[in-house]
Amino acid sequence: MKRNEIIFILHIFIYTFGYGMVSFAYMPYLYHENSNQYLMGMAEFLLTLSNLILPVFFILDPKTEYVKYFIIYATLSTGIYELLIPDLYLYQIIFMFLLVGLSQFLWWYSTELFMVFYLKDSTIANYYSFTWGISFLITPYISSYIIHRMGFIPVFYIGSIIIIISSLIFLKLIKTESIGSIIMNKKSRIDIIGLLPTLSSGLVLSLIFSIFSYILLSNGYTIVMLGIVFSFVSFGRIAGFFLSIFVRTESSLRISFIISFAMMMLISIPTFTLNFYLISLSSFLVAMGSSLGISLPLIEISINKSIDSGKSIAVYELFFGIGISLFSLIGGFLAQCISSRFPYIFYMIIIISLFLIFLIEKYLKKLKRVQ
To answer: DSSP labels for 55-104?
Structure first.
């Protein structure tokens, strides 16, 4: 890789390492502060609400000329917000997630645009998800150990400092002379059906990162056991991201999309059992499927010259936002009002429906037209 690409990857790794530390602590910390499942669902909803609203504005105008400034703002503001969380009350923390979510959306959206436009001719898209997947693989171990030994507060302080350091690395990147000019795509096509895996990924992650901690902790799991389960989640995500590095053709994309949906359907396992070993295994597979659902559409956007990259990434973030934000709120409501286990089987039914739409519209109808 080129020097500017290496610096970019380093920024991705360090930022997501810091954020991975604090984000692992979010739901256990709320549980520690006597939150119920509905409030935990509300917290995840507010954390991802920006993914549901802001993409609409970026679809109309991708704001490609501001991506470098968005990244700097997002890193600095996220680090500051995380420093404040330990000093807040429960409802203040939940509101703070709204501000963290705004910065998070701007960072993810802007780094993806930066990758597609400024590093257009590289294969960086294949390594992008793998890099931040490595961070989320390591951080559950580190965070759970620190929480077990010293409590929650050091996790937020250490994570905040690491996040702020990542902004300095990005400043180093944009000062290099090797950053190319922005490359605009004049095409207007957006492959909506091709983004359904991202919607499904957001949907399963809405459960994993909101009420999943509650159902495990309330059924006898310790914080260390929870850390192990989330490490399996991270292992699964990194496995999916690693596989996506080798996906570069239409046929490999098609097969990988199908595998992704099949794995995400295993989100229903907590409905039937909370056995530690089965939960760990299913968490690995679901996370692997969701990581493919996240990375494959980005790869398709980067290699398909007929797709409008800027607008497609905005729709990509919108679909992910609908999945992870809106369904966090729905999942928390269903768990609190019906049963802690009900959302998992209900979401599996939705994923099966999305898979059938994806399969019919993207491949079967296309095959029929060719014949």
So the answer is: HHHHHH---GGGHHHHHHHHHHHHHHHHHHGGGS-HHHHHHHHHHHHHHH
Separation between Cα atoms, residue 68 and residue 50, nearest integer Å? 19
Helix 223-244 vs helix 124-150: crossing angle, to nearest 10: 170
Residues of the chain with pLDDT under 50: 177, 180-184
Structure tokens at 295: 């990375």
Tell me if 290 sits within 8 A of 264, measured CB to CB: yes
Q: In terms of Cα–Cα distance, which of 306, 350, 57, 51 is closest to 191?
A: 306
Kindly give, in sequence order, each residue whose CB lies less than 8 Å from that of residue 17, ignoring residues fewer than 6 positions away: 135, 138, 139, 162
pLDDT given at position 263: 96
The tokens for 246 are: 């080798």
Q: What confidence score (pLDDT) does residue 61 get?
A: 65
pTM of the entire structure?
0.73
Q: What does the alpha-carbon distance between residue 17 and residue 19 come to, in Å, rounded to a whole number?
A: 6
Residue 355 and residue 261 in contact, taking contact as beta carbons nearer than 8 Å: yes
pLDDT of residue 189: 66
Give CA angle at 220 (347, 345), nearest 5°: 10
